[in-house]
Amino acid sequence: MKDIASITRDKKTKAATLHLKKDIPWKIWPGKNTAHQASSPALSGEKSGSYSLPVDPMTHACFTLQTPEEILTLAEHHLPMAGGYNIRDLGGYRGAGGKRIAWGTFFRADDMAHLSDEDIAYLGSIPITTVFDFRTHKEVEAAPDRLPASVKNVVHRPLAPGNVAPSEIQHGKFGAYDDTDAFMRVVYRELVNDTGINATYREFFRLIQNKNDLPILFHCTAGKDRTGMAAAFLLFALGVDRDTIIRDYMDSNTYLAGKYTLLTKDNPQLAVLYSVKPDYLLTGIDTMEKAHGTVENYLARVLDADIDAIRSQYLY
């Protein structure tokens, strides 16, 4: 079922806008679960359209939307980062039992090296507490994170699936692989099967199962493969349906548009490194299902994910 409303923020001004898709009476309050309060709503109306929300643009916030059909907690999926492209909140998706993932808890991202001071302050207002960095040592040295003071825990666990140097790819070579798609399918099988990579994702799940380490932001350089697999693992653990998980994965193509334009213009063979296809993620899913029957079995057996505890803690 499609949601009747969403919130976006301008990446520079960070001003918040409510988008209503249906003509229906509505009221909205700042905060979670606030529709029961006697105070007047921040805004109300009866028509579809886009409405500016009167809130501090530099502070992250959730909102409660009330209609005759339902009461929704809302925030922006795509965070308003002037210096970032693919930074997203996984909240709001429907999970097991029709419940929704808590907003402001799990964030996926690309590199954090070019965030503005305002971006950093905004992330601090969430407040991001743990950062899990999947980048290699060379990637970190080339683009060190800029992080808010709210971050108390930084975990760096390098992942480098595929074992093909970027210099080879730049010259149109993919090691022993026939083409870019074959190479990426190998990458996604490794993200599922490699024992060292399994250990990293197990640590990721240990962190997310401890509320004291949250909110957590996990990222790599583009935020699409190593991070995309982590996000898919987490969404499956929370009971999100496969189509929604694939759509979330594919959103990287939308949000990364423009980030690598100059690089890929002169080196079109590098485009594979900065985009995603459904087949890549489906290769990983198929690998898990062939070996374990279901993705949930894989998560429990290989990554030590406590599915019941995760759903109990983070679905509402």
From TrEMBL:
UniProt lineage: Bacteria, Pseudomonadati, Pseudomonadota, Betaproteobacteria, Burkholderiales
- The Tyrosine specific protein phosphatases domain covers 202-247
- Where would one find the signal peptide in this protein? none
The record's section on PROSITE patterns has:
TYR_PHOSPHATASE_1 (PS00383), TYR_PHOSPHATASE_2 (PS50056)
What domain of life is recorded for the organism? Bacteria
Pfam families noted in UniProt:
Y_phosphatase3
- Kindly give the InterPro entries that the UniProt entry links to this protein: Prot-tyrosine_phosphatase-like, Tyr/Ser_Pase_IphP-type, Tyr_Pase_AS, Tyr_Pase_dom
GO-annotated molecular function: phosphoprotein phosphatase activity
Q: What is this protein called?
A: Tyrosine-protein phosphatase
**Family matches, as PANTHER family:** TYROSINE SPECIFIC PROTEIN PHOSPHATASES DOMAIN-CONTAINING PROTEIN, TYROSINE-PROTEIN PHOSPHATASE
Which source organism?
Oxalobacter vibrioformis
Entry similarity comment = Belongs to the protein-tyrosine phosphatase family.
